[in-house]
Amino acid sequence: MKYELHRHSSQEMIDRSSKFLQKMQARRSVRHFSREPVPMEAVRNCISAAATAPSGAHKQPWTFCLVVNPEMKSKIRVAAQQEEFKNYHGRMSDEWLKDLEPFGTDHIKPFIEEAPGLIVVFKHAFGKDEHGRTQNYYVNESVGIAVGILLTALHEIGLVALIHTPSPMNFLAETLDRPDNERAYLNIPFGFPSSDCEVPDLERKRIEEILKEY
Predict the structure, then answer these.
(1) Rounded Cα–Cα distance for residues 2 and 21 (Å)
(2) Contact, 80 vs 109, CB < 8 A?
(3) Whole-angstrom Cα distance, residue 56 to residue 178?
(4) What CA–CA distance (Å, rounded) separates 116 from 34?
(5) Which 3-state string (H, E, C) describes 13-66?
(6) By three-state DSSP, how is residue 134 classified?
(7) What was the pLDDT predicted at 167?
(8) How far apart are CA 122 and CA 27, in angstroms?
(9) Domains within the chain, CATH numbers bracketed
(10) Which residues of 137-167 are buried (b: 16+ CB within 10 A; e: fewer)?
(11) Are strands 62-67 and 117-124 parallel, antiparallel or unpaired?
(12) What pLDDT digit, counting tens, does each position of 97-133 carry?
């Protein structure tokens, strides 16, 4: 199949990349959500966009579980807080806990229920077909790229999101009744920010700190 891509002039490329950079610089992780409903068709489109990510041997080793049921969100919160309590009270090192102090986080996670929806992402440790178990390749890399596209898409439509990783996350597969080849990758609460939403005053590394040109 022949592939064609519309080409922009050099100046158009610079202008478009500058506008995209400015938009993405405004993206922040948010823990305070409005309960206002969001158009789920738009969220489904964002998930479809995430599924355009490249993957090892085109195995597409991901499942996105869109959770909006209040009882299901409550169940996930209870299980997540149980794991997070263990993290904050023994599993995490002193250095880790100190690094988290500026964010004011603890094992209490109200945003799981406050957000109008969750996207729980699962990676496929292996595939399945009519003959049994099949091999997947570069699973973590593939799913990571898909998540990056998902976060970008959610920001593009004016929603905020949070990467929530209450490790270990086995309870998510159990709660959502996922098959044995799927492993919870992360949980993404999403929605509009609350009217009193605040975020830490952070600075991202300058390009001189992250880019080395050869």
Answers:
(1) 31
(2) yes
(3) 22
(4) 8
(5) HHHHHHHHHHHHHCCCECCCECCCCCCHHHHHHHHHHHCCCCCECCCCCEEEEE
(6) strand
(7) 84
(8) 24
(9) 38-69+116-193 (3.40.109.10)
(10) eebeebbebbbebbbbbbbeeebbbbebebe
(11) antiparallel
(12) 999 988 889 999 999 999 999 999 999 999 998 889 9
Residue 168 preceded by cis peptide, ω within 30: yes
Name residues of the chain where pLDDT drops below 50: none
Beta strands in 137-181, from DSSP E residues, in sequence order: 160-161
Q: Are 53 and 149 in contact (CB under 8 A)?
A: yes
| Structure token digits, residue 135 | 């091999």
pTM score, whole prediction: 0.95
Q: What burial class does residue 6 get, using C-beta atoms within 10 Å of its C-beta: 0-12 exposed, 13-18 middle, 19+ buried?
A: exposed
Q: Residues with Cβ < 8 Å from 75, sequence gap 6 or more?
A: 175
SS3 at position 212: coil
Alpha-carbon gap, residue 190 to 73, rounded angstroms: 12
The C-alpha torsion from 43 through 44 and 45 to 48, rounded to 10°, is 130
Tokens of 33: 């959500």
- Picking from 117, 139, 138, the residue whose alpha carbon sits closest to that of residue 185 is 139
The DSSP secondary-structure symbol of 118 reads E
Cβ proximity of 130 and 121 under 8 Å: no
CA of 153: how far to CAs of 51, 116, 121, in Å? 11, 17, 15
- Non-local (6+) Cβ contacts of 57 within 8 A are 136, 137
CA 1 distance to own-chain centroid: 32
Q: Please report the pLDDT score of residue 42 as a whole number.
A: 98
